[in-house]
């Protein structure tokens, strides 16, 4: 059997080589060294991706809390514009993070990582070095918090956020893979625009300081976390959930963030699937689903259907 396979392989290779030679040299040109198009690092398109939101496109993403690279690849391949890998609330170590980022890019989506906060320098560094397209920084309260977050993402070289940048330089980062940014110092010089920086407006202090926060050089997205924001404003305790999100004071808070984003040129983001109400306000970056919740809801729905079929089948036998 093995001999037959080897013979078949040689025959196929022989035919293929002859055909290629005939085709390649028919016009007198030598065949190319590779028949693949060159690899393009996904991070290289990030500046244009951000600009497209400023020009009106609305991007939709799915949060990944399962820590599963298989689930992440499925979510990405389904068609979401980006995935939010949640290292704040999920079991994600650096090796798992690398696998999740690779799975996300394999599925064709942008990859964002929600880190531990503006003081999580190691988490931000790992996300950037392992090839994340951007980071989402939770729990900020002041302009200084956001400046620190941006600083951790940016080299003190060129581009927005470079002044005060403190990102550590190292070789063999994932964005420097062949076809990426090449040599170390090419990436250090040109890498800043490829890291998208988003912060969460999810505290009462951040809401009060949102105009100053949006003025920070190098910030791309101000993202509303509705659950924590409503709770920190006291509306969760006073009104309950989900009634707090219908309170006029929460609506005013959303309007304040939208106005600050518009005035500063920062993209407004929202963990919200109610796009019909938020897109007209100017928001363009949305987390609209979550892998664990989606699996739970779909499995529960499917199970009810199977239970009903089982019940009907058993009832038929009893007649």
Which strand-content bin applies to the residues?
5-15%
In DSSP terms (H or I, runs of 4 or more residues), the helix count works out at: 14
How do the helices and strands follow one another from N- to C-terminus? HHEHEHEHEHHEHHEHHHEHEH
The counted number of beta strands is 8
Counting helices, strands and paired strands, the structural category is alpha/beta
Spans where pLDDT lies below 50 across 5 or more residues: 1-22
Strand arrangement, major sheet: 1-2-3-4-5-6-7-8
Helix share, percent: 40-55%
Radius of gyration of CA atoms, rounded to a whole number: 25 Å
The description of the largest β-sheet is:
8 strands, parallel, barrel
Average pLDDT, all residues: 89
Overview of the molecule:
There is one protein chain. Helix content is 48%, strand content 13%. The chain has helices spanning 2-24, 46-54, 69-78, 94-106, 121-129, 143-153, 184-190, 204-208, 210-214, 226-232, 235-239, 248-264, 275-278, 291-318, and strands at residues 59-64, 82-86, 110-114, 134-137, 196-201, 221-224, 267-271, 283-290. Helix 3 (69-78) packs parallel to helix 4. The chain is globular and about 75 Å long. The model is unreliable at 1-22 (pLDDT under 50). This is HpcH/HpaI aldolase/citrate lyase domain-containing protein.
Overview in brief:
The protein has helices at 2-24, 46-54, 69-78, 94-106, 121-129, 143-153, 184-190, 204-208, 210-214, 226-232, 235-239, 248-264, 275-278, 291-318; strands at 59-64, 82-86, 110-114, 134-137, 196-201, 221-224, 267-271, 283-290.
